[in-house]
Write a structure and sequence with these properties.
single chain, Chemotaxis protein chec, alpha+beta
Length: 158
């Protein structure tokens, strides 16, 4: 029996960025982009964590329409809009399956060599490996987080 191909970004992958700032996208993610989307993605700085968020273009358009509902005239909402939109960069995956991550995004996220990519269903994130391991371990080892996760799962019907 052959498994059907994945249609959402899931899993965690360790990769390296080369000296020119190029990152090879995991083959599983490239396959999803090729089959479900296009090979063009939008990158931006996460306003929550010091990482990069990557959206396929059609998912980015959905996210952008939601972002556009934030008021340009409410100072807090404006800050969110400005933070995300000012850092947004389009990227095309090259023939070797790589993207070039702009210097300002690499600097913000602390990306130098070793990185982790993890799939978040309709998007994926690119993290500095040490930072990812700390956040992941802190989450896993904190008993309050386990209780909170249980509450959220129950509340959302997961």
């Amino acid at each position: 029996m052959q498994l059907s191909s994945n249609t959402s970004f899931t899993g965690t992958y360790s990769h390296t960025i080369d000296s020119k700032g190029r990152l090879s996208i995991p083959s599983e993610f490239r396959e999803i982009l090729k089959n479900k989307y296009t090979e063009e993605i939008q990158l931006f700085k996460s306003p929550i964590n010091r990482c990069i968020v990557a959206y396929p273009m059609s998912e980015w358009e959905i996210f952008q329409s939601r972002l556009d509902k934030l008021s340009k005239y409410n100072p807090q909402e404006w800050k969110i809009r400005a933070f995300i939109l000012s850092s947004t960069r389009p990227c095309i995956i090259d023939k070797a399956g790589r993207i070039l991550i702009p210097t300002d995004l690499r600097n913000y996220s602390g990306l130098d060599k070793d990185v982790v990519l993890w799939g978040d269903i309709t998007s994926f994130e690119i993290w500095n490996t040490e930072r990812w391991n700390k956040v992941y371990d802190d989450t896993r080892e904190n008993p309050d987080v386990a209780d909170f996760i249980g509450e959220i799962f129950a509340k959302k019907g997961l």
